[in-house]
Amino acid sequence: MSFSLGIGSNIRKSPYFDATVADGVQSFSVYNHMYLPGHFGDPQGEYERLINGVVMWDVGAQRQVELQGPDAAQLVQYLCARDVSGTAIGQGRYVPICNHDGNLINDPVLLKLSADQFWLSIADSDIELWAAAIAAERGLDVRVYEPDVSPLAVQGPKAARLTANLFGEWTQELKYFWFRETSLQGIPLVLARSGWSKQGGFELYLRDAARGQELWDIVKAAGAAFDICPGAPNDAERLESGLLSYGADARLQTCPANPFELGLGKLVDLDGPDDFIGKPALLKIKTAGIKRRLCGFVIQGDPVPASEHRVSVMQNDIVVGSISEMACSTRLEKNIGIGLISNTIADDVDNLSVSLDSGLRSITISGLPFIR
Amino acid sequence: MSFSLGIGSNIRKSPYFDATVADGVQSFSVYNHMYLPGHFGDPQGEYERLINGVVMWDVGAQRQVELQGPDAAQLVQYLCARDVSGTAIGQGRYVPICNHDGNLINDPVLLKLSADQFWLSIADSDIELWAAAIAAERGLDVRVYEPDVSPLAVQGPKAARLTANLFGEWTQELKYFWFRETSLQGIPLVLARSGWSKQGGFELYLRDAARGQELWDIVKAAGAAFDICPGAPNDAERLESGLLSYGADARLQTCPANPFELGLGKLVDLDGPDDFIGKPALLKIKTAGIKRRLCGFVIQGDPVPASEHRVSVMQNDIVVGSISEMACSTRLEKNIGIGLISNTIADDVDNLSVSLDSGLRSITISGLPFIR
Prior knowledge:
2 copies of one chain form a homodimer. Chain A is built from 8 helices and 22 strands. By secondary structure, the first copy, chain A, is an alpha+beta fold. Chain A has 2 domains: 136 residues, Gyrase A, domain 2 (2-Layer Sandwich), CATH 3.30.1360; 128 residues, Gyrase A, domain 2 (2-Layer Sandwich). Chain A has a 6-stranded mixed β-sheet, sandwiched between helices. Strand 1 of chain A pairs parallel with strand 2 of chain B.
């Protein structure tokens, strides 16, 4: 199925939108009420460049929620299920965010810019609304807002060399998820060693939307030596790498799930000194026992079409889980998927199946990630 | 510009999705993290059927936030800037919802199903997250969640006859925004006299997602006598009718605006006995004076392309407003738009302009709606 996407005024363009159009973007999705490129006409080539070279991604749709003020640190800790008290300035941390019922509602990277300034670099839900309401209802002295910040990612094994050429050799020493406030030819940005792939790379958090085209052009020009191409967060790679996608693998309204189920239990600090939203609910959930787990699936048979997803996992006509997304992995030469399976099902069962448009398929459970 | 839309697992399909695909949907947008049809290949024909006949729209993306429990009424009033205390069971009301700073964050229709059960039928922002956080932080005894409810709209001058044929003559007496819990061939739904056009019509709030195709087929079959066709919320008609679009004309992150600026001042009850979110901020805003107003614009010259929007309104090289959306109105034989203009600018100035891709255009201010 192929449909056109209406370019309308209720969905926002990223600062790189015109640049991606000029460079041949063919497909978009929508993320945080913003156009997010899907591919530039050669999904397989873009995947291979991500694995073997370097790609540049307009991930401006990964919006920031800034918490700034005397009570910012207190609010951050109250919002996050992870103990973030030890976070250093210049450090980023992956944090599960739950609602009061203990269900995941986002899984951002938290960036600590100063003692009283934080960014939540969010997945696809309106955390600004939620966090601002909590701050106001608790009477905290903190400003919650969306700053003018739009990430551009460079990902792939050659991203480190490219980044060093652009910013200097100090970038080689930057640890994963750490960042520095810097600039590039006068363009203000935050450079972080991060990105939504496991191929290595950086995110350039542009701090002036008016300079999106300029930043795109600089990265593109410097990347030419590495045969850089534009691309987008890649479904096959994220499945191979076992990266969680809030909105696909879990979403409050469509597939509510708690962080224990989603493999994020190690990031939930129930024993910490501080209260956080969802803590009482998560204590109860943990005591009652976790019912499902996130896992990989291998799907037998011909390559699955990318458009099939959200299918029920069956065992003898009983639904025991679901696959939220699947793709054909060319590196593994297998169909792989990610989803939730009941904890009553052992890892090695051999009688699971899914019903696809193309017919019934046998599936097996796999650990995550598929590829380290 | 035309792009394809990736059908992915992080965006949800409506219960009518397969029905719209079978009936030839060509274009989608994304609304509340869900696919929303754009058109079925003949936008002008769909517009004309809306004006002169009857169309059916998959507006499942208009999600409901249900507030249910002993404190539901208290929470509803705290969330809404409008005094809703006099709302009867079976009555709907259009309500501005503001954040603590007094900026609009949604403009739903509130439906009162019982003394302790309400729906907010929302525009495009995650009000469930926001409302649930407020309820929990205030310790209210109310459940906030998204029920299994997906509206199907029939709109146009022939919608009333079609609805009477389907549900009975009592529907002719239903007042605007009022509704009744009923069923159609055993399919549970709420029938409301409402919809996002000014051509008259009803919304069928389907209460069982599994029966979307069935409901679509029933309405389509009964509508055949009226030459019904599938369609979608229509930009030209909404501009002619002066309907506000949260997300386009205002959005917290892109175009923050308060209800006074957006022509919703009459729906803000600052003198009421109850507190509501944003009331102190709105009192200050009103005292300080309102700086902008929502208005219509007439744009001179050739028909404007539908893809142009969010353009600055200029007076002698100074930005004095913005047009959030524009379209060519075939009924008016004019280009029309909607947006915000500074209150320093009189309605009858003759030196305003916008810069479009096709060149500079003179514009004039118009009252709203363009067509009653």
